[in-house]
Amino acid sequence: MSSIANPKCPVMKYVPAEGEAHPMVMLPQCDSQPFTLLKDSSPANTYSIRFHNEMTAGQGGNTARIYLAAFTTSVSNPTWTQSVTAEIGATAHIGFTATDLDGGTTLWVGAWWNDGTYPGTEQGVAAYFADHPSGGEHHTVPMVVG
User: Fold this and answer.
1) Torsion from C-alpha of 145, 75, 33, 118, nearest 10 degrees
2) Averaged over 55-82, what is the pLDDT?
3) What is the C-alpha to C-alpha distance for residues 46 and 32, in angstroms, rounded to an integer?
4) Please, are residues 13 and 112 in contact by the beta-carbon 8 Å criterion?
5) Which residues pair with 117 in a beta bridge?
6) pLDDT tens, 32-46?
7) How far apart are CA 70 and CA 72, in angstroms?
8) CATH fold of 3-145, please?
9) Burial of 130 (0-12, 13-18, 19+ CB in 10 A)
10) Model pTM above 0.70
């Protein structure tokens, strides 16, 4: 298992055999799933993740919405949720503290179009993960919080 602080995760387009093409979050190059997200060196007890939208225009939308949920036993009962958008070619950043996670030890990260299907609210994040469980080769990037 690999570990990293402040990773930069590419956001690419996923084209399934069936269903709708949509953005997906990939792991930073050379990291394996799941990986341990380490705290940043400064300030203390903080984490950060960057997401770079590497899709190109004309692929279905210009903006990806990235979803994060922390939990202890099940993503259906998150201790913390967050969402951020990234335009094509842009890098979005999410920072949070160990306290924000409220005891959560696992993070799931996923992406969809920023089209209102899954809004950036706690309910929208929960709905995204309910519809996109871990597995399926792309739906969820799992991380262990270090």
Assistant:
1) -110
2) 87
3) 22
4) no
5) none
6) 666 788 899 888 889
7) 7
8) Immunoglobulin-like (2.60.40)
9) exposed
10) yes
